[in-house]
Amino acid sequence: MTTAGQAPTIVVPDPSLVLLIGVTGSGKSTFAARHFRPTQVLSSDAFRALVADDENDQEATADAFELLHRAVDRRLARHRLTVVDATNVQASARRPLLDAARDHLIPAVAVVFDLPARVTATRNAARAGRTVPAAIHQRQGRALRRSLQELPREGFAAIWLLRSPEAIDRTIVGSAGS
């Protein structure tokens, strides 16, 4: 596992599957928009909006992830850089995505947003119309803590840890041909 320090450069093989991993409010979507083309980013919120016209409709989650997984499979089959913007804090959520990468012989990279709970809780509370209940936010935090122990055994080609808003803001993403 690599911890990002001063102006870290995250090297992303092209093609690869990039899993953004972090609790609600950790900055995954902002990071994805800053560093990847819109066509490369598959957002669970966007897929909820596709199936239910509301990215916050949690009842649409199963349908949204069914489509998201299908899109991941199709992009990886075409050897396209694919970024999954979802919490991904549970191994059970990561497993089918990692299986798809292995099936297509594409490396998987984890970018983990391991920010202090007070930072993400404050950001979550400030999200207009998109606030996740505190109990769910705390559950995501516990799952992220477990994930930090599990990730090295899951088959990622690289794991990048971003532990502060400043580190996220300074991070540079570069690509490397596989």
Outline of the structure:
The protein is an alpha/beta fold.
Sequence of secondary-structure elements = EEEHEHHEHEHHEHE
Question: Radius of gyration, rounded?
Answer: 15 Å
Principal-axis shape equals globular
Helix content: 40-55%
**Low-pLDDT sequence parts:** none
Number of domains: 1
Largest sheet composition: 6 strands, parallel
SS summary, helix count: 7
List keywords for this structure.
alpha/beta; single chain; 45% helix; Rossmann fold; two-stranded parallel sheet; 178 residues; 7 helices
Describe the 3D structure:
It is a single chain. The chain has 178 residues and is α/β, with parallel strands linked by helices. It is built from 7 helices and 8 strands; from the N terminus they run E-E-E-H-E-H-H-E-H-E-H-H-E-H-E. The model has no long low-confidence stretch (mean pLDDT 91). The protein has one domain (2-177): P-loop containing nucleotide triphosphate hydrolases (Rossmann fold), CATH 3.40.50.300. It is globular, with a radius of gyration of 15 Å.
Helix-strand layout with pairing:
Blueprint: E1 2-3, E2 9-14, E3 17-22, H1 28-35, E4 41-43, H2 44-52, H3 61-77, E5 82-85, H4 91-103, E6 108-113, H5 117-126, H6 134-150, E7 158-162, H7 165-170, E8 172-177
Parallel strand pairs: 1-7, 2-8, 3-5, 3-6, 4-5, 6-7
